[in-house]
Amino acid sequence: MNNNNLPIPTHFNRDKVDQIWQVDYQKIASEAEEWGVEFNINPSAKDSIKTCLLIIDAQVSFCIPRSELYVGGRSGKGAVDDNTRLCEFIYKNLNKITSIIPTLDTHTPMQIFHPIFLINNDGKHPSPATIITEEDVKMGKWKINPSIADNIMTETYDTLQKHLLHYTKTLENKGKYSLITWPYHAMLGSIGHALVPSVEEAIFFHTIARQSHAQFELKGFYPLTENYSVLSPELTIGINDKIIANKNINLINKLLSYDKIFIAGQAKSHCVAWTIDDLLNEINLRDKDLTKKVYLLEDCTSSVVIPNVIDFTDQANETFIRFSKTGMNLIKSSEFII
Fold first, then answer.
1. Same structural domain for residues 60 and 168?
2. Parallel, antiparallel, or unpaired: how do β-strands 310-311 and 260-265 relate?
């Protein structure tokens, strides 16, 4: 660790990272302003090297034990330990992080990856973690729940059923994860949708100390596609060439405008990996040397593991190795880089 790192403020409590509580904004704001004076921290607009920290889905649904889709990794403490290190990274590098961009997975019940969307011949919904393949749809194992058709973008039942087949086929043809039904999670307006308080507190502290507005990015609200990556949904074009979702080109351009981009969050195997992959695709279209400005905080992210059901750890690790071979930097959060 480099001696130029700032100390961690006394308000940060490692024992509360796995808990839900209310940030005392006024108190933290006062401390942040005093911190800025004590350590001569300049407003971020004066940074000569522009550095961005992209925090993907550090939300209660994924990061608090016993929440709907807690990312425990193989250790069972994955997201909690990740967020502890992430908060410390923010505080230690407070004077060098220009901007923080937190993403928020944002869902409603009637989306293609939630159980209510599909039924079998007995009228039963798939259980969470059920994989839905193109073959399943062709054979009639899973089909659209007809009761929801009128609520989904005024689509007819037949159109939705054709879309389901098109969607599962396209995912497989593109080598993406098959459609999977997830537990209801990150529901808009819910506690699960909120940032983990410890991470929210660190972001708020940075905002005040650096006079730098955090740029929140919502994703995952399109009903007819999954949206692991904050940069692009799994599918943008449905049947009959109809646009069902859009790429976040403004965020792509914003990220690539920075001198350095640090990426952390949940889950390594899904939303983090897919976001990095989309960023890599854009870099390859523009200038492959831009990969050198990307830094992956590999100890601030964990993979989806549902014991005795699915474990994406090995796939995620292999994917990160692939990223490193393109020129992206795999680092620990304790390393002084900026």
1. no
2. unpaired
